[in-house]
Write a structure and sequence with these properties.
Length: about 575
């Protein structure tokens, strides 16, 4: 029998005013200026060092500093939600310029087809736009819940909160950031340890295992896993199962079970909403299964439209038969959608998105199918344009979701805030497009192209010469599929194992496992100190999670600061 919920506490937060708008003059000017900075940093680093730094935390820090300027208009930037809008745009411009735009257009350029750069850029812009639109539509659904890890988003939110509240939080964040920066300075991937304090434990355990296997297999087993397509096979198997799991999540399975209890719960639910004025509930999602289905279907249709544009203006249509053209368009649209989902799921749980590796899988598939060189290059570029922006928007929405938790009424404020974040990100994307349009010719003429684009082109030119490649990928797809199936859609164990095998960053596996051990030990320590009282133990676990989130955010922030500081090497 349901009970009427208690009245809201006396210190319940007051009803909030309207959420700050992305197009407010001061916010918009700050957003544009910092987005230009983010896009330039992204272009320089991706074309010289091969990295695209997470500038989300950097944008938050800069917005906080601007808010401290003693000038009436700029004081408005002290608001955490305005800082969230700015950091969303800055990180969006960085990843859009580096991953979604400059990398795809470098593929036809390196292939000796510079006349295809502009059609490829148009397709990449479409891919970027659809990528962000789909995430906006389906974020906080069963497939991509806001309550999931999204580690970089937690880092950005905790940075903003610590700067706003100061005190112990700011101190703990600052110390962790210094540790993260110094660790990165001595070539330790401290961001991996930071992510382990924030992400899903099972997913990160498999991620750490994959990293260790990739690091030590050449020495212990005297085998190059990548040369034998082992990581690619594991990702293919896990990715296929993840795709099926995503399709199943779009069904209204829980609706039928909950319908039997709807009668007795309806009155209690109405009373709860009235009493709490729609206060935040971590288990209440803002996107139902119907909207999830519609968002993904809209994305697929739009991706198909983008593929048609590339086919027409890229010359694919004139060089293929009718059936071949239809097949290419369907494959390109499906590759873009699947690429964004796999990259997004991996980023959601681990903070790392294996965009390069997943794109390489579609490249190999194209070689197996015998797609000609130019259509294959355009297919690869189109797939590469999706995924990173999808993951980055998820990180930023997670940051905003955390900052808006205590709003009353929560649901309308959360929806309004998310919409303003999306608009701010569109500003960042527009800035990134303009920067790439201006910069790509000077960059490419000087030989400054993303290293991953060279890998794509070299693979396309070489072709699939190894007759055992398909067999090895098919063989290793089996354990990848089984592990993904065993872990379920909430853990993404197979995808994260494959991500670790593909990323293969030295020492990152040890740092992930060490951080997970510290996380477990600290939580148990706080739990035991709380005694046997259930309420006290729940409070202790929540406090432990808050401390660990701050430490993880600081480590990620310090590592990001180090990555951005590397621009002096590039210049």
């Amino acid at each position: 029998m349901s009970q009427t919920p208690p009245a809201p506490p006396a210190d319940a937060p007051e009803t909030r005013a309207a959420h700050p708008r992305a197009f407010e003059p001061v916010t918009l000017i700050v957003t544009i200026v910092l987005s230009v900075l983010g896009a330039v940093i992204g272009l320089v680093l991706i074309t010289t060092l091969g990295i695209a730094p997470n500038t989300s935390v950097i944008g938050a820090l800069l917005a906080m500093l601007i808010g401290r300027i003693s000038f009436a208009a700029l004081r408005r930037m002290r608001d955490p939600h305005r800082q969230n809008l700015v950091q969303s745009a800055v990180s969006g411009s960085t990843f859009a310029a580096a991953n979604s735009l400059i990398t795809p257009i470098a593929v036809p350029y390196l292939l000796g087809r510079p006349h295809l750069v502009w059609p490829m850029l148009g397709g990449a812009v479409i891919g970027l736009a659809v990528d962000s639109w789909v995430l906006y539509r389906v974020f906080d659904s069963r497939l991509l819940p806001a309550s999931a890890a999204w580690p970089a988003g937690v880092a950005a939110a905790e940075t903003i909160k610590a700067g706003d509240e100061g005190g112990r939080k700011a101190g703990l964040l600052g110390i962790s950031a210094v540790v993260g920066f110094l660790g990165a300075l001595v070539k330790l991937p401290t961001s991996a340890a930071g992510v382990a304090f924030l992400g899903n434990v099972w997913a990160l355990l498999m991620f750490g295992v994959g990293l260790l296997v990739a690091q030590y297999a050449p020495e212990v087993l005297h085998t190059d896993l990548a040369a034998h397509y082992v990581p690619h096979g594991v990702m293919i198997g896990a990715g296929l199962v993840a795709l099926v799991q995503a399709i199943l999540l779009m069904r209204e399975r829980r609706a039928e079970r909950s319908a039997r209890q709807a009668g007795e719960r309806a009155a209690a639910r109405a009373a709860a909403e009235a009493a709490y004025e729609d206060r935040f509930d971590a288990e209440t999602r803002t996107v139902d299964a119907r909207r999830l289905r519609r968002g993904l279907l809209e994305g697929f249709v739009l991706f198909l439209a983008g593929a048609v544009v590339i086919a027409v203006f890229g010359g694919v249509a004139s060089g293929m038969s009718g059936a071949g053209l239809v097949g290419w368009v369907l494959l390109a649209g499906a590759a873009a959608l699947v690429h964004q989902l796999i990259v997004g799921l991996a980023a959601m749980h681990s903070g790392w998105f294996p965009a390069f590796a997943v794109t390489l899988i579609f490249l190999i598939l194209g070689l197996v199918l015998g797609i000609p060189m130019v259509p294959l290059a355009l297919l690869v570029g189109y797939a590469a344009s999706t995924g990173p922006a999808f993951a980055d928007v998820g990180f930023d929405f997670k940051a905003g979701w955390i900052l808006r938790k205590d709003a009353v009424p929560w649901r309308p404020y959360e929806r309004a805030g998310r919409r303003q974040q999306y608009l701010a990100q569109l500003v960042g994307f527009a800035v990134a497009v303009l920067v790439v349009v201006i910069a790509w010719q000077p960059f490419f003429s000087e030989g400054r192209v993303p290293p991953v684009a060279k890998v794509y082109v070299d693979t396309i030119k070489a072709g699939l010469t190894d007759p055992h490649a398909l067999m090895m990928m098919g063989l290793w797809a089996i354990p990848g599929a089984l592990i993904q199936l065993l872990g379920g859609s909430s853990r993404q164990m197979g995808v994260l194992l494959a991500t670790g095998l593909l990323v293969a960053t030295p020492q990152a596996g040890w740092l992930v496992l060490a951080a997970l051990a510290v996380r477990f030990g600290y939580t148990r320590y706080r739990d035991r100190r709380a005694g046997r009282d259930d309420l006290a133990r729940a409070d202790a676990r929540a406090a432990a999670d808050a401390d660990l989130a701050l430490v993880g955010a600081g480590l990620v922030a310090g590592s990001s600061l180090h990555d951005v500081s590397q621009i002096y090497k590039a210049l």
